[in-house]
C-alpha cells in the first residue's frame, strides 16, 4: 500500500519549540482560571473546587443544585416530588454571592458603537443621494461595492444606534434642499 502524500509534512520537527517548558507546565497542577474577581479573592488554593464553591454558596453542578422534579405515579395519579435535599451545606463566605448579586443588579453600560468610517460613509450617502439606494450603489465612494440592500442595511443600523443624531442630521439636510429649489 503506498504511503500517504501529506503524512511526512505533518511530522516535521520544530526547532523553535521549547519542550522542557511545555513538559514542566503540564506536570504542575493547574489552578482553575476564574473570571469573577469576587470568587478569585475568596478562593482557597488548598481546597478542592467543590469545597471552595460550597463555602461560597455556589453550586458545582447545576443539575444537582436544582434537580428536575421527578413525577411519581401513585395509584394512577401524578404527584410531583419537591426535590429538596435534607442536608444543607454551611455557607462560610456569603459575601461572595451578595457581591455578585449586587454587581448583576447594576444597569449594563451600552457599549454599542459604530466605526467613524461607517458613520461618515452613511452620512455622505444620505447627504448626496437621499433615499435612492441604487444611486448610492453606483457612487464612486462606494469602495466596498455594496449592493443597494447592503447600503440600506447599513443606514438602518446607523438609525438604530444613533436615533437622535440621525434625526438632527436629516433636519439639517432639509434647509439645504429648500435653498437649492
TrEMBL record:
* A Pfam family reported for this protein in Swiss-Prot or TrEMBL: Nop16
Q: Where in the cell is it found?
A: Nucleus, Nucleolus
Region described as Disordered: spans on this chain? 1-21
State a GO cellular component annotated for this protein. nucleolus
- Decide whether keyword Nucleus is in the record: yes
Family to which the UniProt record says this protein belongs: Belongs to the NOP16 family.
Q: What is this protein called?
A: Nucleolar protein 16
Specify the species.
Ptilorrhoa leucosticta
Gene behind this chain? Answer: Nop16
Amino acid at each position: 500500500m503506498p504511503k500517504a502524500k501529506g503524512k511526512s509534512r505533518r511530522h516535521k520537527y520544530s526547532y523553535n519549540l521549547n519542550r522542557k517548558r511545555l513538559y514542566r507546565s503540564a506536570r504542575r497542577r493547574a489552578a482553575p482560571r476564574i473570571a469573577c474577581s469576587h470568587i478569585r479573592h475568596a478562593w482557597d488554593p488548598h481546597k478542592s473546587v467543590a469545597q471552595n464553591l460550597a463555602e461560597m454558596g455556589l453550586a458545582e453542578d447545576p443539575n444537582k443544585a436544582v434537580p428536575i422534579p421527578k413525577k411519581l405515579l401513585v395509584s394512577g395519579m401524578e404527584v410531583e416530588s419537591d426535590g429538596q435535599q435534607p442536608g444543607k451545606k454551611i455557607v462560610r463566605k456569603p459575601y461572595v454571592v451578595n457581591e455578585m448579586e449586587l454587581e448583576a443588579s447594576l444597569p449594563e453600560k451600552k457599549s454599542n458603537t459604530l466605526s467613524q468610517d461607517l458613520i461618515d460613509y452613511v452620512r455622505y450617502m444620505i447627504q448626496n443621494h437621499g433615499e435612492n439606494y441604487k444611486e448610492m450603489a453606483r457612487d464612486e465612494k462606494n469602495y466596498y461595492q455594496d449592493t443597494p440592500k447592503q447600503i440600506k442595511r447599513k443606514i438602518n443600523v446607523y438609525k438604530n444606534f444613533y436615533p437622535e443624531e440621525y434625526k438632527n442630521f436629516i433636519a439639517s439636510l432639509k434647509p439645504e434642499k429648500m435653498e437649492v429649489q
